[in-house]
Amino acid sequence: MHRTIWPCVSALAVAFVMAGCGGAATGANKINPQSPINALPSAIQTKLSSFDSRKRTVHTLPTKITAQNVLYIAPNEKYAIDQFVQVWPRLKVKPAVVWTRTSEALAKTVWVKEGYKSNPLPSPQTQYVEQNLPTPDAYHQTGKDTWVEVPGVLTAQEVDKWLSFFQ
Q: Do 123 and 97 touch, CB atoms closer than 8 A?
């Protein structure tokens, strides 16, 4: 799926009614703890493009954070969290995780509703931001100000590609 579509897909998937995609968070853009998103709509799942076709080089991250690998994700995106949970225990170094459109307290409430006892993606570097950012979105630093970005989730057959991406 083309990169410019992901912000709108993310907004659609989390059922936000907004004037556009992206932008500063307001009370209306915050995560709704009552509505975890357990799966991508099937129409989107069938149109997921390959891991390699989504890679692109960028020169800045959406928020200020210092880490070689960063994952931006919303706490109510259970479909995406479940995908990363599959590879998380096998990662030698955990990516920094930026939970978007939420506070730490609200994220904890959502995780419990989704069936997690605590943070499902523990990292030595975790942030909570109320910004409405395109998620999920992964970054791997390849140079001083150069990052490889891979937006979205992968097909079931490609999930293990996150292992090499984050190494």
A: yes
